[in-house]
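Q: Focus on the shape:
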Amino acid sequence: MADETAFTIDGEVLRSAFAISSRHVLTAWHCVRDPRSRNSSLWFRLRRGDQQERRYIYVPVRLANYDETFDVAALTLDEPRLAEADLVASSAAALLAEAVIPLGVDIHVKDQALVMGFPESASGADSDTNSAEVIDTRLPFGSATGMKLFGPAFAAVSPVDPHGLSGGPVIRTSEANALPYRAVGVIRALPTGSLLGAASGGCLIATRIEDLVDNLPEVAVALQATQRAVAVPQYLTASRGMNALTMSRACWRRLRESVVVVDDPEIGTLTGWPHFFNEPIAHRRPTAIGTAYGLKLALVLGEQDYGLDRSGLAATLWKLQRPDGGWAARTGTGISRPEVSALVLGTLASCGFDAALLAAAGTAFESALSPGADSVAVERTYIASAVMRGLIRTRPGSPRLAQLRTAMLSGAIQDPDNGNLLCWSGRLKAGGNEALVPSIVHTAQAVVALVRTSYVLGDDTQSRTTVDQAVRWLSTRRDLSNQTEQIRRFVRDNHPWETLTVRHFTAAWAARALLLASPTDLPGAEALLGEAMRQVCQSHHDGYWEWDDGDRPLWMSYQGASVVRDYAMRTSTALP
């Protein structure tokens, strides 16, 4: 930019810059590289007071580092000059810390952003903010690449003159505040056209924070600090001021008070839970799925008042076993299904039960996995991943586990819209004219199943490569809305079809996949994990996790509570 000066306060030449840590400030290198800037005193100005009593604090800074290719400079506190501003090192660091804009690297085409700084046509001595949209994230720019943004204010009939914005932050935003604000770029230039003092086409060019990590250690340290700080206070208090502990206690109370006891004339007393916490009274009867998830939830939350009879709950699950040796959904035809049997057997194995009974049920479970017994089980990603998780808990030595891993890996598809990265559809095989469409929730389920299987069977190159690509694919996704899947099975001629409706808590699955795969160095992964946790926590209401329509399925509370627990453990700080 030819002229960066905004003449707004006598004796001052304003440049745009922003704090990234308690010691460092970022700006454009060309703003401080000329001899006049290097020989002049540099100050980072912070506004204090309200409109009626405006005042400024000046923090002395100096050049610490720069990258000429990406046109970014890092400034640091100039401690020998602190006395000129009546400051000491600790108070100056506190001022910068208060002004920090956290850094991020997750940015995509069509993302909404804000650009901040001192444009030439700003109406006063304070910075201006304008909206923009990302239209290119890898625009070739000299020997580097950059981010291109379009701002309506810069393309107006009477446009904002953007000269002076260099060094200001590009802050990613969202219409629904779906992601936390992050500075993802630094303004560096504008395309010039025929109109003096305007940006050609209303566009700006910025350097991405992602490109600075390997070149400026000041940026790398600030980004790491942002990633470490993300979410423990922000996301785990997103549910009406509750944190992980209070959410757990509230959920435990709801679980404890919702136990149902029913005397069945054929199989005896049943103690457990229906499918939903808010089940209508007429249908309030323990089911295999509801009781299994209730017992799993109790194990996650911990026995806080020793008021649950685990043996009685386990006995109920055995009483609900079908004559064919497995377990069925309440909405089915009474035929056991491997995804339900996997859930129940995994629960029984977790709480400890008679080994002979488990072995017999495990044998029946394995026999139900043959293609001839249930062809849908080996075609659906959801079912295959559920069965893999069940085998890990109950039959880790089963040859079926390795076979399912092979089938799962073979069922991965490439997404041509995202660099041909591997991911999963709802199906492992295409059927008829139905195309395999990439799915966030099914990719997350496959990642969870494969990572857990590697703990049992050991890691292998294909699994590791496929999981790495799938996590990279997930990290480019934004839509974590809940999904519903219909699974149809042919039964017999007089009752030809059985339909199972499966609801998927997408945010919880995405968080679980990222927590297991632990891609801490992958751009976008931390942002997705943070967003997933925000949605998980916001689905919690008064001790329950609620579906979009207000239903309160036990499985959803189990998934919500377990992922909150795992996330809290991952982000906990070291003990003193």
